[in-house]
Backbone:
């Protein structure tokens, strides 16, 4: 039972991440509704959050991140892969790679085909546009220019080796794409980013902070939700803690509790609250309130392999620019609002292409950066000049789970994406490694590069490359799927197409966990779209006629 002396709001949102910030803004637009946001992490005052290159610092800082790791498997050569997530206002959007990427229309059309009414690409496009403030060209008229959205800008800092890489791709038959977010992503070019005037614009900066001036919105930081409170099957509030062992506090929700805690934490919170697979709940000593077998299942991520090449002696790549007097020069440029390596994204160039030429749409995302990290080190640049290219499969079928290890939300859950467990995923992954190797060895790149250092030219056969992928592959931090959207007739579905939890009342999920299948993209843009949709569902609204017309 909820504590009736607790304070009450119309809506309680758990998590101020990419989705939670959008929701907090949109729900508090209605001055008659009161909204409380609980965020487990601190305010986003750490200065490294706001400098785009600061992700090198924040990603390993447990004060602003959940330092989750996957359960070791044979497919990761017994390694635990760090699947870090953001834990501060903005959530992962405060520590992410800032790439804005929507994916292919077919991703969403596939969601609709699975029985999710109103989730096709044409239905969702107005919501991508609503959450976006495109600053730059829009040849196909597919972008949003909403001043209340996330600014999406073009790269403004270019390296000659990146240009050579793009040139090499074009001459190898991959077209330069003027806008990969137009609905046709195939091709090569520079990423669009959530960076404006040299600064990261997280979801907190774009959506939450402006809304925090409203009297009907309250944001509580260092407030870790430890249990959803129910009366029967209706969610009526949330219990939260400031620290392990601290006294529990409660907040009541008159209308709804909305879970936006991210893929790992949303599933875990449902489980420790008694909603999930009965055998799992029994094993952690949590009474079963409502058995939903899909909670924590269907967990997916993109798994990437990266090839590193040493550049010719005397080359100046990011490895040199990030040191000594050259770094001082870059800092000075950044401080005077000129293009600088401090305001770039971790991957500069994209290639959306095919593992086999016969495919009619790309099944791979490849990335290129004119810099390289030392093998086995976390974000330590190589001492020699180098470049890196990575590849991952768009829509992996390999999937695993997130399972609470105990009823205590201060114990990390068991996180197992089962990378590369599907035979077709392994085949496509190998196609990706071979493609980036080919693109790193075009005549245009040979002018700049000397030799492959990772994995090295002696690694050639499928078995050798797969062994390399298992030993060195990594997450792209695109965790999805643990509260899958699908009709109630689907036993693995957790929420319906209005994002309400099946079999419960007053409980909705709006974050990356609802994605039923992986999209052909980084996940941030789609999470913001999901949150925009959730806000309309809650407010009983539709996209306006003007929004529908301009997206048509
Ligand atoms: C390092 C990294 C790089 C990435 N790079 C990119 C990129 O370049 N482009 C892209 O498109 N995507 C990228 N992503 C993915 C993208 O950021 C995520 O898909 C997106 O942020 C997910 O949004 P979310 O709202 O589901 O969760 P999050 O943004 O992770 O937010 C969840 C929030 O809930 C809070 N929370 C969790 N549990 C509780 C609890 N019990 N109580 C209270 N609060 C809680 C968390 O602290 C967090 O603030 C990256 C992610 C990471 C981590």
Residues:
């Amino acid at each position: 039972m909820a504590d009736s002396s607790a304070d009450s709001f119309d809506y309680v949102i758990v998590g101020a991440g990419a989705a939670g910030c959008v929701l907090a803004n949109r729900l508090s637009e209605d001055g008659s509704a009161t909204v409380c946001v609980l965020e487990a992490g601190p305010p986003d005052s750490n200065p490294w959050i706001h400098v785009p290159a600061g992700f090198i610092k924040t990603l390993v800082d447990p004060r602003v991140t959940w330092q989750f790791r996957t359960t070791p498997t044979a497919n990761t050569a017994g390694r635990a892969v760090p699947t870090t997530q953001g834990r501060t206002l903005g959530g992962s959007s405060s520590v992410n790679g800032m790439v804005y990427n929507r994916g292919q229309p077919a991703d969403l059309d596939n969601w609709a085909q699975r029985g999710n009414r109103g989730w096709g690409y044409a239905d969702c496009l107005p919501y991508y546009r609503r959450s976006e403030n495109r600053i730059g060209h829009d040849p196909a008229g597919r972008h949003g220019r909403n001043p209340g959205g996330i600014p999406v800008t073009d790269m403004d800092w270019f390296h000659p080796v990146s240009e050579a890489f793009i040139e090499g791709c074009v001459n190898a038959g991959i077209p330069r794409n003027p806008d990969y977010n137009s609905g046709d992503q195939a091709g090569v070019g520079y990423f669009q980013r959530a960076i404006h005037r040299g600064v990261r614009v997280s979801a907190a900066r774009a959506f939450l902070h402006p809304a925090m001036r409203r009297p009907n919105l309250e944001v509580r930081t260092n407030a870790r939700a430890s249990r959803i409170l129910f009366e029967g099957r209706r969610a009526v509030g949330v219990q939260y803690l400031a620290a392990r062992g601290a006294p529990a506090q409660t907040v009541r929700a008159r209308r709804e509790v909305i879970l936006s805690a991210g893929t790992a934490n949303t599933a875990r919170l449902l489980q420790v609250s008694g909603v999930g697979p009965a055998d799992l709940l029994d094993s952690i000593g949590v009474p079963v309130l409502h058995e939903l077998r899909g909670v924590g299942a269907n967990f997916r991520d993109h798994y990437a392999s990266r090839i590193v090449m040493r550049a010719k002696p005397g080359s100046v790549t990011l490895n040199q620019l990030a040191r000594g007097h050259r770094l001082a020069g870059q800092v000075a440029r950044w401080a005077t609002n000129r293009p600088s390596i401090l305001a770039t994204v971790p991957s500069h160039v994209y290639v959306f292409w095919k593992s086999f030429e016969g495919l009619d749409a790309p099944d791979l995302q490849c990335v290129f950066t004119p810099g390289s990290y030392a093998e086995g080190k976390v974000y330590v640049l190589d001492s020699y000049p180098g470049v890196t290219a990575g590849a991952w499969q768009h829509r992996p079928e390999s999937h695993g789970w997130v399972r609470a290890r105990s009823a205590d939300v201060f114990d990390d859950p068991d996180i197992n994406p089962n990378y590369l467990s599907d035979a077709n995923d392994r085949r496509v992954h190998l196609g990706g490694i071979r493609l980036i190797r080919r693109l790193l060895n075009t005549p245009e790149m040979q002018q700049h590069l000397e030799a492959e250092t990772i994995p090295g030219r002696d690694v050639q056969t499928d078995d050798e490359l797969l062994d390399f992928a298992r030993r060195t592959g990594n997450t792209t931090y695109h965790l999805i799927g643990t509260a899958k959207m699908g009709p109630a007739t689907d036993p693995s579905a957790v929420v319906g197409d209005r994002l309400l939890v099946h079999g419960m009342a007053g409980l909705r999920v709006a974050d990356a966990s609802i994605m039923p299948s992986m999209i052909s993209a980084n996940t941030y843009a789609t999470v913001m779209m999901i949150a925009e949709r959730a806000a309309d569902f809650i407010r009983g609204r539709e996209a306006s006629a003007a929004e529908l017309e301009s997206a048509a």
User: Anything to note?
Assistant: The chain has two domains: 1-149+198-298+402-410+478-552, 156-190+303-393+420-472. Residues 1-5 have pLDDT under 50 and may be disordered. The CA atoms of residues 112 and 320 lie 48 Å apart.
